[in-house]
Amino acid sequence: MAAAMLKEKGAKRVLPLSVSGPFHSSLMQEAADKIKDDIEKISFKDPVIPIVSNVTARTMTRDEIIENIPLQIIRGVRFRESILYLLSQGYDTFIELGAKKTLCSFVSKISKEVRVMHVEDTKTLQNVLSAL
User: Fold this and answer.
1) Does residue 115 belong to any structural domain of this protein?
2) Is residue 30 part of a domain?
3) In whole angstroms, how far apart are CA 98 and each of 82, 117, 124?
4) Theoretical Cys-Cys bridge with 91: which of 2, 85, 86, 130, CB 3.0 to 4.6 Å?
5) pLDDT in single tens digits along all 132 residues of the chain
6) Domain count, the chain
7) Is 125:119 a contact under the CB 8 Å cutoff?
8) Which residue range is the domain that position 122 belongs to?
């Protein structure tokens, strides 16, 4: 049902994901409000390394980080657009940190010309460091 509505709105492809909660939806508004309250108590500096928001698919300033972190909880993830933005900026190597290689697979589907690596433990970290 949701897939049909999204296609009516112009989505070219809809891929249902099996997830454990209503993340990145309005059902998380209470959590977003709590994060917003907490984040306003933190003193941020401008990032030294560019940080790409999954809300805007662009790099963020200090003020945009404060604004976008709560929004990331309730808005859809613009992962593909974020990767395309990074590619347009000259990035060609992507390293996923975590127990699974899900994002590596997504990045490989977006571009066959990039290098994707995965770190989940000390051994895979050493492999990535050696490859770089």
Assistant:
1) yes
2) no
3) 19, 11, 11
4) 86
5) 566 777 777 777 777 767 666 667 677 788 888 989 999 899 888 999 999 998 999 999 999 988 988 888 888 889 999 999 999 999 999 999 998 888 999 999 999 999 999 999 999 999 999 999
6) 1
7) yes
8) 92-131
